[in-house]
Design a protein that fits this description.
With 283 residues, the chain is of the alpha/beta class. Helices cover 49% and strands 14% of the residues. Helix 2 runs parallel beside helix 3, helix 2 crosses helix 12 and helix 3 packs across helix 11. The chain has twelve helices and seven strands. The protein has a seven-stranded mixed sheet, with helices on both faces.
Length: 283
């Protein structure tokens, strides 16, 4: 993956999306990023959700890492200005916060709820609205290997700006009917924007997050996805329902016991396929 990035001279950017909330987008964004960083891939997570769940998870991750190294508190990640203040200043390059080796965060905050209102005040056309963030995000691509964008559900203006900027979309699909519908809506919008603005963005794949690995509904939805969208679009590895993932939001990501290791081993497989799919597109 690093060779592909070096050849193209800028980061590979991936939106993790689904029109529905609560389908594992933030867990997938933060854990894939953590594993990429673990493997020497300089990774930036851009949190575009005003709920800031990815930001909270990664800030706790940085603190956990510093504590494990017995580092002084001065090495704890500290958030400076908010993303909305950066947008107002016309510069996001000084926002990223170091979490740990090779892992950085452009944090969100509650004031990002005002983005849509700000957007309509400062953009005159539909195209300007959907391309508003791209010139602010583009300068970040020279400093990282991979940029992963964690998205809010249902805020179409944020979704459109992320799609216009990114190289790929990874759909996070929890095995429930509402999540499948949200994935379909997201993919339809991806296709609409790709055609409308002649974008080079591609669908990287669909990563399934199981409610119940043996549940009849889960299995039926997986079969429906493969039949409707094609088996090749679905990641070969799935994310089972693991309680430890929920705890990472509170205590940060790390590997202190076998439950941590179980989660991270799943995402090591997922991240390997994630990188391979990017290589297949760009290599």
């Amino acid at each position: 993956l690093k060779d592909v990035v070096a050849k193209r001279g800028k980061a590979v950017s991936v939106v993790v999306g689904n029109q529905k909330g609560g389908v594992g987008k933030t867990a997938n964004s933060t854990l894939i990023s953590y594993i990429l960083a673990e493997n020497g891939v300089k990774t930036l997570v851009i949190d575009l959700d005003p709920q800031a769940n990815a930001s909270q998870t990664l800030i706790h991750t940085g603190i956990r890492d510093a504590v494990s190294r017995k580092a002084p508190s001065t090495e704890y990640p500290m958030v400076g200005k908010t993303i909305m203040s950066g947008i107002a200043d016309g510069d996001l390059t000084d926002l990223p916060v170091r979490i740990k080796d090779n892992l950085y965060l452009l944090p969100s905050y509650a004031d990002f709820e005002g983005f849509v209102k700000y957007l309509y005040k400062h953009a005159d056309t539909e195209e300007e609205e959907s391309h508003f963030l791209k010139p602010l995000l583009d300068p970040l691509t020279k400093d990282y290997d991979v940029i992963i964008l964690d998205m809010p559900p249902q805020i179409g203006e944020v979704r459109d700006n992320a799609i216009v900027f990114a190289d790929f979309v990874l759909i996070s699909l929890q095995t429930q009917s509402g999540s499948l519908k949200g994935a379909e809506v997201y993919i339809d919008k991806l296709v609409d924007l790709k055609v409308k603005y002649n974008l080079s963005i591609e669908l990287l794949g669909l990563l399934a997050v199981l409610n119940n690995r043996r549940g009849s509904v889960d299995l039926a939805i997986m079969e429906q996805v493969k039949n409707d969208m094609g088996e090749e679009i679905v990641f070969s590895d799935v994310v089972p329902n693991m309680e430890r993932i929920k705890r990472f939001h509170i205590q940060g990501i790390g590997e202190d016991d076998r439950f941590d290791t179980q989660v991270l081993n799943v995402y090591r497989k997922v991240s390997t396929e994630f990188a391979q799919r990017i290589n297949d597109f760009l290599g």
